[in-house]
Amino acid sequence: MKFSLRRARMTGALTAILALTALAGTAPAQAHDALASTSPADGQTITTNPGKVSITLNNAPETGVPGSNTIKVIAPDGHTASSGDISVDGATLSIAADIDHPGKHTVQWRAVSADGHPIEGSFAFTYAAEGETHSEAAAPATSAAAVPATTAAETPAPETQASAPASSQTPDNTGWFIGIGAVLLILVAVGAYLIGRRAKTGTDSTN
């Protein structure tokens, strides 16, 4: 009986160690790659056609699966302004884009991080042709008494916003599942310990 009690305690201790190890691995499992910057930047107004749109991750993406990394640029009128295949240079992914429609462009992207988990998001920028931006300022002024002076708010100006992370990234819930499994392991360990104590109590009472 003493041998069975000792075995039950050893089993409970090993189970508890495994549970703690699983809990310790929960945090790293959630630390997937993330978006570091975009070009153009999120919310930026550009005045020339850049010819391409790029995103940069904090680590180089996985490129082993064709079509796993995508960038789609949608013009203000709804047509797709991007074309061709994704090019990867280290942690930067780029796609050719013909930006020639004035207005807000939306970029939807998806990439597979180095640990194999997909991440995705979107951002937007505005295109205003340089000639259109300065057309109002170049127009001759009329009578100041009859027409108010053009305010700075009427003339769109490029923003000097730094590169910012995409506004939406799909969270990964892998860590939650690992945490739930760890809790179940702890419950098993506690149950084994209680069974061992009950067996010992029964032995002592019998003696």
From TrEMBL:
Q: Does the keyword Metal-binding apply?
A: yes
The residue ranges flagged as biased composition, category Low complexity, are 136-171
Superkingdom, natural source: Bacteria
Q: Where in the cell is it found?
A: Cell envelope
Q: Which UniProt keywords apply?
A: Copper, Membrane, Metal-binding, Signal, Transmembrane, Transmembrane helix
Entry's transmembrane regions: 175-195
The region called Disordered is annotated at: 134-171
Keyword field contains Membrane: yes
Main subcellular location: other
Task: Return any one Pfam family short name.
Answer: CopC
Q: Where is the CopC domain?
A: 32-126
InterPro entries the record matches: CopC/D (IPR032694), CopC_dom (IPR007348), Cu-Rt/internalin_Ig-like (IPR014755), Ig_E-set (IPR014756)
Name of this chain's protein: Methionine-rich copper-binding protein CopC
Secretion signal, residue range per the UniProt entry: 1-31
Q: What is the native source organism of this protein? A: Pseudarthrobacter siccitolerans
